Amino acid sequence: MKTTSRKEQILQAAFELSRCNYSWSLSGLAAHIGVSKTALYRHFKNKDELLAAMDAIIVERLVSSIEEAEPEPKAVRISVTRLLRSENGILFRLLQNFGMRPGYEHLLFEQLAAQSPRVRALRDSITASPNSKGLSVALVKNCVSILLAGVQLPASSCGRQTDSLAAAGADSGDTFRTNLAGYQDELISILGSGLFPLPVPSSARLDELEALCTVRTTELGPSNRLFDAIASTVHEFGMENTTIGRIADKMGRAKSSLYFYFPNKDEMLLELVKTEIDRITSLCSERICRGNTLPEQLFILLSVQSGYLLLKSDILAVFNWIRYELVRDPSRDPSRDPSRTAVHPFEKPKLNGHWRFAEWFGTVPDLEARSKAMIKWCSILATTGVLHSLANGADSAETKRTIRRMFLSMLCGDRYTGELA
Q1: What whole-number distance in Å separates Cα of residue 409 and Cα of residue 418?
Q2: Dihedral through CA 402, CA 150, CA 373, CA 263, nearest 10?
Q3: Which pLDDT score, from 0 to 100, does residue 1 have?
Q4: Which of 163, 183, 237, 353 is deepest in the core (most CB within 10 A)?
């Protein structure tokens, strides 16, 4: 029987803590293992060195999953998803990196390409393609969506989740259940098939809808001094180094005064995002009836949210974090915890009677649950598209083209060639 070395034990415990708390400390890690903090320093000089070792393991495990899968997109997606579901510590460390390290997706892709012949061949083919921008967007969409699909929920809500992955490679069917587990398996299927046979809007029609979705500065709503201070602090210091003390300094107030309203930083950030999501929802509701088909309505959602974020770039870092927060604990219900002061912004998206989700799902008892799951996915991809575009130095016009490519990739799945309709 293979014995586990102390260094391996430390790494394993660090991944375990990553599942519960993105800001764990070395002291907490030592207590979790049952050793002194000094014992950790015999193997790692500091937390940064430990995190680097964890990231190296992640790359190694991802490369193995990619290389061991059958050589086609469906099999690779399923293989990586199985890895993330079986080793959620790896998943949550990945989510932390995506949510708190700008440009991490590019760094990870290059690290994978350096060790995986398949990823290297994919990178080279994208680079050589005249539609490289579109193919890059499609790749980012797949990566973020696989992270969403990789969460292993409690057995009470998703006992059949892992087994059902084998069927997820088939055409989309009735696997889209009322719980998130069903959504995750359906998502793997949609990544391949897209939303076929729903019609792809013409380029001219997308131009019309894009103009309709233009968000004006007068629609941003009133300024909130606290939320402005939060966004400014995150923008300046990054999510992990944002503290209530620094937020209070921005406002010129005592830190204790903020604790009167929020028990911790995460609750404050959730309330900020909830406020912004409510505004975006209102803007979408005003325009959604202008979509004649479900694809047109999804394009409206993507365009309105991305346009809003472009006008409020200071909150982008917070929205990037919420992608991580949503997946870190997707099944929690704020109503079950009376101590929570903020409702999760993606927990209960509002639907109105104009949505045309029945075009895709049909007339089913759980239509609303299925519809909300797709809205969550689109909302996350809208944020992803803006972040991806701005990370590449794009202006507002190019970011709109990125969102259009994201939409076409969603609609066409693996059939998407990267062209801009």
Answers
A1: 8
A2: -100
A3: 45
A4: 183
Q: Is 358 left (phi over 0), alpha (psi -120 to 50) or beta?
A: alpha
Contacts of 34 (CB under 8 A, 6+ apart): none
* Burial of 318: CB neighbours in 10 Å, binned 0-12, 13-18, 19+: buried
DSSP string, 369-385: HHHHHHHHHHHHHHHHH
- How far apart are alpha carbons 401 and 390 in whole angstroms? 12
- At residue 173 the predicted structure's pLDDT band, cuts being 50, 70 and 90, is very low
Give the whole-angstrom CA distance, residue 76 versus residue 274. 35
Q: What's the rounded Cα separation, in Å, for the pair 22 and 13?
A: 13
Whether the per-residue pLDDT at 326 is higher than 80: the answer is: no
Question: Percent helix, strand, coil in the chain (nearest 5)?
Answer: 70, 0, 30
Q: How far is CA 72 from the centre of its chain?
A: 24
Helix (H) or strand (E) holding 406: helix 396-412
Q: Give CA–CA dist 141/139, Å, rounded.
A: 5
Q: Which span out of 143-157, 321-335, 371-385 was modeled with the highest average pLDDT?
A: 371-385
Angle, to 10 degrees, between the axis of helix 316-328 and the axis of helix 88-100? 170
Q: What are phi and psi of 85, to 5 degrees?
A: -75, -30
Tell me, what's the pLDDT at 104?
Answer: 86
pLDDT in tens, 143-166: 999 988 887 654 433 333 334 454
Quick one: tokens of 194? 């897209």
Residues 290, 16: Cα–Cα separation, whole Å: 47
Of the candidates 394, 385, 306, 395, the one whose C-alpha atom is nearest the C-alpha of residue 136 is: 385
CA 268, CA 414: separation in Å to the nearest integer?
Answer: 39
- Sign of the dihedral through C-alpha 44, 45, 51, 57: negative
3-state secondary structure 116-161: CHHHHHHHHHHHHCCCHHHHHHHHHHHHHHHHHHCCCCCHHHHCCC
For the stretch 275-301, what's the b/e string if a residue is b when 16 or more beta carbons lie within 10 angstroms of its beta carbon? bbbebbbebbeebbeebebbbbbbbbb
For residue 202, what are its two tokens? 């013409």
pLDDT tens figures, 50-105: 999 999 999 999 999 999 999 999 999 999 999 999 998 899 899 888 877 877 88
